[in-house]
Amino acid sequence: MNVFANTVVSLVFKLLDDRNQVIEEAGEPVTYLHGGYSGIFPRVEAALAHKKVGDSVSVSLEPGDAFGDYDPALVRMEPVESLPPDIAVGGFLVSENNGEETVWRVTDIAEGKAVLDGNHELAGQRLRFDATVVDVRPATPEEVQHGHVHGAHGHHH
Fold first, then answer.
1. Using an 8 Å Cβ cutoff, are 48 and 61 in contact?
2. Which of 128, 122, 123, 9 is nearest to 59 (CA)?
3. pLDDT per residue as tens digits for the range 37-81
4. Which of 56, 63, 108, 145 has its CA 20 to 30 A from that of 153?
5. Which of these CATH numbers, 3.10.50.40, 3.40.50.300, 1.10.1200.10, 1.20.120.680, describes 7-67+123-146?
């Protein structure tokens, strides 16, 4: 079976930076619903169209195709006393503004201030996504209706 809209695709992948260093590698296959359901980067999804089990793709991703451009406006300093007491470099905070959630990564703490970065850790980077298709099956009507893959024993919302 080939990959097309409303198929469930399982693949193994490597995500590499522009120096060919592995950033992430799937030890187990990952699965997504193919057909514009936002389960994978759109450029990768386009490259996987019409592929079959055993086929591989290698897709170069500009920042806008992956995690976006780095936005300096998403970096701010906050007094440590206004943050949770267990705050630490490498930790994360979540804020909500007008119903929109932002995840802030703590990148530094010094002199009573914490630097918070709302950019994804890979924002602004060129990446390469190498993947091999390991399984393709038709999506169930319920998966298509919900816009995502369900597990082996169904799915309950």
1. no
2. 128
3. 989 999 999 999 999 999 999 999 999 999 999 999 999 999 999
4. 56
5. 3.10.50.40
- Residue 108 CA to residue 91 CA, distance in Å, equals 10
Which pLDDT score is estimated for 153? 47
pTM as predicted: 0.82
- Give 7's Cβ-side CA count (13 Å radius): 20
Q: Where are the domains of the chain?
A: 7-67+123-146, 72-117
What is the CATH number assigned to the segment(s) 72-117? 2.40.10.330
- In angstroms, the CA 57 to CA 47 distance is 7
Residue 152 confidence (pLDDT): 61
